[in-house]
Amino acid sequence: MESIDIPFIDSMVEWAINYAPQLVGAIVTLLIGFWVIGRITKVFRNTLTNRKIDKDVHSFLSSLVSVGLKILLLLAVSSMVGIATTSFIAILGAMAFAIGMALQGSLGHFASGVLLLISRPYKTGDLVEIGGGSVGHVKSIQVFNTVLQTLDNKRIIIPNGVVTGNIITNISGQETLGVELTFGIGYGDDIDKAREVILSVGNRCPYILDVPKQEVFVSELGDSSVNLATRPFCKSDQYWEAFFYMHEYVKKEFDKAGINIPYPQMDVHMKQL
């Protein structure tokens, strides 16, 4: 049977006696700290929700608050057990600098994401056009990217830096939307009669709003048609229903009223030699 090293046991006991209160205090502080941080984060999230802030904003900010408080808690617990936090902070600072240099573009997109969440040029569900090319409903505003779902169900992921660096057109964010429509009639057709037909179709359309009142104007005397323009208003989420309804039923009513919709024609004269 091997002999037990009495001095080693004595040193371990002494170390335990000296540092046990600090270890117990650090563990208790850690457990209580995580519980408190959870409660603070929950209260913070509920406060943002009660103020009707977009869900993307409060989930984003809540995660930042939670991570920041946990880092502070770990630093406090480290100092309780005798770890030099100054050197630890210096190491973290050097690592953050190195990572920042390597991820300059990503940090720029992160900053742009924060700017989007603060300025809120759009929210989840809005139909937007970004940079004059990408059109779709906003599915999510993420830390580095904005995700769009196009009308034909494609998924477009746009870096937030690109979003803030381009023109943003919020198509549906105003609750109501004007439907730009143009109908061409022949030069021999009655303009007033055509205007009456377009207005009657708009009045029957279940998606067109009564206010503002729909009007019809002559917008152009084209090469082969007199073009009548109208802009009835509808709810933003019923834009396409109103758009398709107006085109279909204006054509049907034009046919009933004997109003022609001209199309480009070419007369070819054959000269016999």
Summarize the structure.
This protein has 273 residues and is an alpha+beta fold. It contains seven helices and ten strands.
Topology (SSEs and partners):
Blueprint lengths: L5 H45 L4 H26 L4 H18 L1 H16 L7 E4 L3 E8 L3 E5 L5 E5 H5 L3 E3 L5 E3 L2 E5 L5 H14 L11 E6 L4 E5 L2 E3 L3 H19 L16
Antiparallel strand pairs: 1-2, 1-5, 2-3, 3-4, 6-10, 7-9, 8-9
Describe this structure in words.
This protein has 273 residues and is of the alpha+beta class. It folds into 3 domains: 8-102, Helix Hairpins; 121-170, SH3 type barrels, CATH 2.30.30.60; 176-257, Alpha-Beta Plaits (2-Layer Sandwich). Helix content is 52%, strand content 17%. It is built from 7 helices and 10 strands. It has helices at residues 6-50, 55-80, 85-102, 104-119, 160-164, 191-204, 239-257; strands spanning 127-130, 134-141, 145-149, 155-159, 168-170, 176-178, 181-185, 216-221, 226-230, 233-235. The strands form 3 sheets. Strands 4-3-2-1-5 form a 5-stranded antiparallel β-sheet. Strands 7-9-8 form a 3-stranded antiparallel β-sheet. It is elongated. The protein starts with 5 loop residues before the first helix and ends in a 16-residue tail after the last helix. The mean pLDDT is 78.
By helix and strand content, what is the structural category? Answer: alpha+beta
**Poorly predicted spans:** none
The total strand number stands at 10
Q: How many distinct helices?
A: 7
Q: What portion of residues is helical?
A: 40-55%
Radius of gyration: 34 Å
